[in-house]
Structures are given as C-alpha cells and as structure tokens.
Amino acid sequence: MTEASRRTPGTPCWVSLMVHGLDATQEFYGALFGWEFVPGPQQLGPYVRALLDGKEVAGIGQLPPDRHLPVAWTTYLATDDADETAETIRCCGGTVAVGPIDAGEAGRMAICSDPTGAVFGVWQAEAHHGIAAAGPPGTPVWNELLTYETSAVAKFYRTVFGYEVEPGVSADFDDVTLHLEGRPVASLHGVGTALPRDRGAHWMTYFEVADTDAAARLVTELGGLVVRPPWDGTEGRLALVADPEGAVFTIVRSAGT
Known about the structure:
Layout (H helix, E strand, L loop, with lengths): L11 E8 L2 H12 L2 E4 L7 E6 L2 E8 L10 E7 L2 H10 L3 E9 L3 E7 L5 E7 L14 E8 L2 H12 L2 E4 L6 E7 L2 E8 L11 E7 L3 H10 L3 E9 L2 E7 L5 E7 L3
C-alpha cells in the first residue's frame, strides 16, 4: 500500500468523476468497491471524496443541471506549479478549459486537454496530496491514454511533464510507457480507427478488484454495463465496464495478486 505524499511532477495522483446524480453514483461505487464518502471542496459544486478503509482514493462531483457534458473519469497529473504547467500546456498545443483555480486548502487545479482532445487534470498539492492507497481492491492502480497514435502525443506529455518515454516491446502494437525517475507511471496506447467515435482520445482509469468476473457481474446488477467481457491480458484479468451514467473504466485483478 502506498501512502499519500507529494508526488513527482507528472505522476498520476488523483482520479475524479463529474456526474448528474451524485447520490445514485455514490450508491453504485459504494456497492461495487466498498467506498465510503466524505464532503470535499465545493468550488465546482457538490463534491465528495471516496474513502476505502479511511483512506482517500477518488473524488466524485455533481455537474450543474444545465451542463450536458460527457460523464467520464478524469486522471490528474501532479505538478509543483499549476499555473506554470497550464502555460506550458497551452504553448505545446493543448487546451486549459478550467483554471488554474484554488480548491480550498486542498491545492490548486486545472482541467486541460492534450492536442488530440484527451482531457486530464493538473493537481498542485497543498493539504490534499491525492490517492492515499493504491493496490488493494477498490483502488485506482493504473492510468492509460487511449489515443489515435502515440508518437506526437508522447512528445507533448514528455515536454510538459518530463517523462522518459519507452516504446512497447512489440512492433505490432503502438504502445508507450511513461517513466519518471526510472519508474513506470502511466501508458499510452494508440488504437487508430478503433478509437470510439463517441469518446475520442481519452484517459482510462484501472481499478483493482479481487475477482474480475464477479465484479463485472456486480456492475450489471447495479445498473451498469459490461462494455467488454473479462479477458486475460499481460496485466492480469480485465474487463471494460461503465457505470449507470456511462463513465467507462477498467476493472483488473492484477497478475500476481
């Protein structure tokens, strides 16, 4: 288990979800992952933090009734200076849609997108350092960008966050792993025309589960959708699922667990 501390800039440090029905969404994820909830910063409207065994693992906020935005999990990348990072993002062809703004005493944040339109957050930690536990079932364990092709967008992330970029071992797949200080922290996966037209390029959050098949069945029972049934991959046993509002995420029983 990894305790929360100030992350190296570029490290995925938090995931959050903006939804229309906050209460119903809490019920879904509480039943699926065993999360409990406490109030969080309210700068962007009603917002709660999800706890697992008392440790913060994710955030869920409520969209204004008149905002008909796609519901999706957002990966936040750590920074020591949100304003400087936001300016670099603009200079490198990305977009800053929200902020940078203060989230109370928790920190400073911005919502951005890369040149292909994939949305991500930037988080400058103050009182809140991000995910306080990673590894046990119910926690986010990996973040991956699904994009058209990796070469150009890898240059964007490398320039903004200083990643070391390692191509995948197979020439048959367009895969890149992003490293910081010699440690893998995220991945890029180019899927070309297989990218969903209704979603475009997007970051994907992986949540650990004890049993992928059982968790996929539970998703359906709770009103969600199994987008891709469980399969065995190099990372472990995975399934692509969506919550009742359509937010897509991956559940995984990691290899070796």
